[in-house]
Amino acid sequence: MSEMILHGQPAVESQTTALSNNVYTPRFDVCETDDEFTLYGEMPGIAPEDVEIRFENHQLAIWGKMAPRHPEARYWTQEYGIGNYYRTFTLGDAIDARLIQAEVKDGILTVHLPKKAEARPVRIAVKPG
Amino acid sequence: MLMNRLSPLHLLQEMQNSWNWLDELTSTTRPFVAPEAYPAIRGWSDDENFYVEAELPGMSLDELEILMADGQVLTIKGERKGCPDNRRKWLQREQGYGSFQRQIRLPGTVDQQKVEAELMQGVLTIMLPKAEEIKPQRIPVKGT
Q1: In terms of Cα–Cα distance, which of B23, B20, B36, B25 is closest to B102?
Q2: What residues in chain A have per-residue pLDDT under 70?
Q3: Where do the domains of chain A lie, and which CATH numbers do they carry?
Q4: Scanning A68, A69, B22, B121, which has its CA 20 to 30 A from the CA of A36?
Q5: Would you say the ipTM is above 0.95?
Q6: pLDDT tens for residues B44-70?
């Protein structure tokens, strides 16, 4: 956990105003295996081409651009809003940034953050003395 | 008490007990807050149909059940299953898992036989055709 600081601060940047003024912080599950960290984020309605992931200076920034759905409709209930998704994660040195991969399926964004070889656990055999 | 290797979980349990105790003592002075209804919905209508939309990321159609009753009561129920892989170590879990059921009364009666539902990219959209008697009708105006 020490090598991964997680936080989500929605920050509005000018590039999103063209689509929607609302920015939502998607919820993420984070898990670790020997080989990688994996992020699973809820981004319902998002298409793969509308997700932009940038890694810069230990910061992983995830943008999901959402156009409004049915903007003309006459609503009788609106319990949630629709807007862009934004979330950042601060990553430690253990991650090999060149091998980061992401996919979207059923509204879940999965980001694979492979660990560098030297950060992976090694099993040490113990010989009888 | 002689003890070695005191588990931090033990200490957490002690803390938890204190909180439970505090919670119990103060529960009568707090207003009752209903648990958040899941899933949240958006509903709209046009002349022909009612529409209900819910965000259900990571769910498949076979985990979902949609029921209509009395021509007006819509029930969405299902179970959001977590990832069963035990080799993983979870560092953070913000998503919710488990069974849910949401029941709403539509603004008018619908033709139950013709209700259609679609799940795309984690967004469930249900189209409910309005019953004939509640569709808007054009009234001809006669001149004299």
Answers
A1: B36
A2: 1-21
A3: 5-117 (2.60.40.790)
A4: B121
A5: no
A6: 999 999 999 999 999 988 899 999 999
